[in-house]
Amino acid sequence: MEYYPFYNLRNDQELMLSQLDIYTYPQNLNNALELIKGAVEGEREDELFYNYLISLAPTHEVKEIIVGIRDDEMKHNKMFRTIYYQLTNQVLTQALMSNFVTPKSFCEGITRALKGELAAVQRYRQILFAMQNRIHINMITEIITDELRHANLYNYLYSENCHR
After folding, report:
1. Which one, 11, 96, 134, 148, has the greatest CB density within 10 A?
2. Taking Cα atoms as reference points, which of 82, 71, 66, 68 lies closest to residue 140?
3. What is the tally of structural domains in the chain?
4. 162 vs 93: CA distance, rounded Å
5. pTM of the shown model
6. pLDDT tens digits, residue range 103-161?
C-alpha cells in the first residue's frame, strides 16, 4: 500500500487521492509550468504597476521600499524564466501588451499589491511542490519568502500611510 500522510484520518475526513495530485510529482508538473508561465506573463503589467506606485510614493522612504520590491520582482522573473527553460528547453517570451489598470489612489495600489503578494505565495507554493532539483527548490523558496517579506512591507506602508 502506498503511503499518504492523510491516510489515518477518519473516512469522511480523508483527502481523495486526486486531491493529493498537487503534492505529487510528476502529476503536478504541468500545473507548475502553467503557473510559471502566468507569473512571467504578468511581467509588463507588474512593471507598470510598480512604477506607478513609485511615482505616487509620499516619501523617499516609501519610494525606496517599493523600488526594492520591484527589483526583487524583476529578479524573480529571471529565476522563473531560468527554471522554466531548464525544465522544458523552451524560452518564455516577454509580453508586449499589458492589462494594467491604474489604481484610484496610492492606498488602493498598496492594498492591491498586498493582496497580490499573498495570492502569489499560494500559486508559487504549488510550483514548489513540483520541483525535484534542489537548486529549483531553493530558488522557489527564495521567491516565496521574498513575497512574504513584500506583503509585510506593504502592510507597513498601508499602516503608515493609509490607515489614519
Report:
1. 148
2. 82
3. 1
4. 37
5. 0.87
6. 999 999 999 999 999 999 999 999 999 999 999 999 999 999 999 999 999 999 999 99
